[in-house]
């Protein structure tokens, strides 16, 4: 590689990094400024308004409520996906039984179906079951969307575990449940982390299903709350940007700590 | 072991497997199989509010494809989805390929760059959409402020019919570029070092490497990127929803099938009327387009993949 060539590629990456970071930096800086300051000059250095903006977001809006709702829905859905997904994947990976191939196909076929397009019958069905406008209704939809990928990843991983451990535990008189919980699942932890991230991130960020399913303000999740917020604070950008920053912060921090797992989790399936 | 205990053992084992499969299978049946079958059925029904009132055959589908005023909106939205896909292929995925090649060189800072480039991917489309909506504000936005520094008067990006769709496409490219970039990078890293070295020794420039050597070898990654971009483009909803609204303003310049489907089914800003029949017809149409094009594209793209 010649020096000039190397410099050109380094410049491309540098420019790209600026384009990627700059909008987030503007968001962060604007969150620390008053509305008047932003409108006077959109690009400016931080002033002391950050605290006032954050307090306003926290006290005068439903932001804490939306945040709590998002946490409950994301954790509830992800936990259910991992528990049900692991159970099904364990049966498919560790036992030989008639129809196993078909059952596997049944689960994995869901990978190809965009459930968004079935929102009308889902809506009617949730209405009949009295699950419309409930967190449980939303969680059940997320579990249905998440199970195919979880079963796919976990079955693939559980199949690779050696059978000797299982056999020797059985010979020692351990029950099937003990073998599964004590011997096999602890070994599957890396796959569980990948499957968890792969599901939790899109659920945390989802907007479409809450928009259709949830109408009560007290149930709304963060992305949904932000659109309301955008309307309310359309003229107070300091507060609006503080809200955006606070909304982006939790996932950004977790991402920075676990970036390797995030990238592996979200691109899994796309990379063979 | 006697025959009886062996049989009891077999029954217990069967029950145990059934118990493991049952919760997942139940949720999948109730919330995937039933609604997906229902979605196809609903396209052939008329509705009064959320209640089906009877079968109408192909009337809903005919309306949204051929009959005014539905058809004009359908075709315009479909055309916008096609534009979104084509532009993202060039802008987002083209840039992603370049960035992946740059990252392959393992220049200083390449690991940090991977984390940076993927950061927007983990953010919600709503956060990204609101952020860029404000950045693109004609008077107080950072984009026009920057342009003003160079003496250019920026347009009202999202308010002008000629720049609105392009602005949302650019936002999408910023949001997702890291995803194809890291998929391409992973594929490039799997090419044997010797192959690239040999090409270099033969005097291949970066341009030749990218176009002639690497491009055919990352064909499986390209297949995935094209299919996912296509599905994503035809499911476009969140970004236009927050950036230009449910009506796809200005004047429908940013209307896409996702918005049209939602408006038809659940009511828009101007009309709050639910129309599940025509909404379902649009959903079935979108499903068929995505499934058919993906299947054909998959065949064509798979054919150009070679084994390493």
Topology readout:
The complex is a heterodimer of chains A (272) and B (308).
Chain A: H1 3-30, H2 35-40, H3 50-60, H4 63-94, H5 100-109, H6 119-128, H7 135-159, H8 164-171, H9 176-184, H10 189-205, H11 208-213, H12 222-232, H13 237-257, H14 259-267
Chain B: H1 3-42, E1 45-48, E2 51-55, H2 59-66, H3 70-104, H4 110-118, H5 125-135, H6 142-149, H7 164-176, H8 178-189, H9 193-201, H10 206-217, H11 219-234, H12 238-243, H13 257-266, H14 276-303
Antiparallel strand pairs in B: 1-2
Helix pairs in contact in B: 2-3, 2-14, 3-7, 3-8, 3-11, 4-8, 8-11, 11-14, 13-14
What would your notes on this structure say?
The complex is a heterodimer of chains A (272) and B (308). Chain A has 272 residues and is an all-alpha fold. Chain A has two domains: 100 residues, no CATH class; 132 residues, MetI-like fold (Orthogonal Bundle). The two termini of chain A are 30 Å apart. In chain A, 44% of the residues are buried. With 308 residues, chain B is an all-alpha fold. Chain B has one domain: MetI-like (MetI-like fold, Orthogonal Bundle), CATH 1.10.3720.10. Helices cover 70% and strands 3% of the residues of chain B. Chain B has a two-stranded antiparallel sheet. The longest helix of chain B is centred in the N-terminal third of the chain and has 40 residues. Chain B is globular and about 70 Å long.
């Amino acid at each position: 590689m010649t020096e000039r060539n190397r410099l050109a590629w380094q410049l491309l990456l540098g420019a790209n990094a600026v384009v990627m970071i700059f909008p987030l930096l503007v968001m962060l800086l604007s969150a620390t400024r008053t509305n008047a300051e932003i409108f006077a000059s959109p690009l400016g250095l931080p002033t002391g308004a950050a605290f006032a903006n954050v307090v306003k977001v926290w006290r005068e809006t439903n932001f804490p409520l939306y945040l709590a709702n998002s946490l409950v829905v994301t954790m509830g859905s992800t936990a259910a996906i991992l528990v049900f997904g692991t159970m099904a994947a364990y049966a498919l990976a560790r036992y030989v039984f008639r129809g196993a191939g078909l059952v596997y196909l049944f689960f994995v076929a869901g990978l190809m179906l965009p459930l968004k397009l079935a929102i009308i019958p889902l809506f009617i069905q949730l209405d009949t079951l009295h699950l419309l406008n409930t967190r449980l209704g939303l969680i059940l939809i997320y579990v249905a969307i998440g199970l195919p990928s979880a079963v796919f990843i976990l079955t693939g991983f559980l199949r690779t575990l050696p059978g000797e451990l299982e056999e020797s535990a059985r010979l020692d008189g351990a029950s099937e449940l003990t073998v599964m919980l004590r011997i096999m699942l602890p070994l599957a932890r890396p796959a569980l982390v990948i499957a968890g991230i792969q599901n939790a991130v899109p659920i945390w960020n989802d907007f479409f299903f809450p928009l259709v399913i949830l109408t009560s303000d007290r149930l709304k999740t963060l992305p949904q709350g932000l659109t309301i917020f955008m309307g309310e604070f359309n003229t107070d950008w300091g507060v609006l940007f503080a809200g955006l920053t606070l909304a982006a912060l939790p996932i950004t921090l977790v991402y920075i700590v676990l970036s390797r797992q995030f990238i592996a989790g979200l691109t899994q399936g796309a990379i063979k | 072991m006697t025959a009886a205990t062996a049989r009891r053992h077999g029954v217990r084992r069967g029950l145990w497997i059934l118990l493991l499969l049952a919760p997942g299978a139940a949720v999948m049946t109730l919330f995937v199989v039933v609604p997906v079958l229902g979605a196809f059925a609903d396209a052939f029904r008329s509705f009064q509010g959320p209640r089906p009132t009877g079968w109408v055959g192909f009337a809903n589908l005919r309306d949204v494809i051929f009959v005014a005023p539905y058809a004009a909106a359908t075709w315009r939205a479909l055309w916008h989805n096609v534009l979104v896909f084509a532009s993202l292929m060039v802008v987002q995925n083209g840039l992603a390929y370049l960035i992946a090649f740059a990252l392959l060189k393992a220049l200083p800072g390449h690991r940090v760059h991977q984390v940076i480039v993927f950061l927007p991917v983990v953010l919600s489309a709503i956060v990204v959409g609101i952020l860029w909506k404000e950045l693109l504000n004609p008077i107080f936005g950072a984009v026009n402020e920057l342009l003003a520094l160079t003496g250019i008067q920026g347009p009202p990006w999202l308010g002008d019919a000629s720049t609105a769709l392009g602005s949302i496409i650019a936002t999408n490219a910023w949001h997702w570029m890291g995803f194809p970039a890291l998929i391409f990078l992973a594929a490039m890293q799997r090419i044997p070092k010797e192959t690239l070295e040999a090409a270099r020794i033969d005097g291949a420039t970066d341009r030749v490497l990218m176009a002639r050597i690497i491009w055919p070898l990352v064909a499986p990654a390209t297949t995935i990127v094209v299919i996912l971009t296509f599905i994503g483009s035809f499911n476009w909803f969140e970004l236009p929803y927050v950036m230009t609204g449910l009506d796809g303003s200005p004047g429908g310049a940013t209307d896409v099938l996702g918005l049209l489907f939602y408006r038809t089914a659940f009511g828009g800003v101007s009309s709050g009327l639910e129309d599940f029949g025509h909404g379902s017809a649009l959903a079935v149409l979108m499903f068929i387009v995505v499934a058919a094009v993906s299947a054909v594209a998959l065949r064509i793209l798979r054919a150009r993949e070679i084994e390493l």
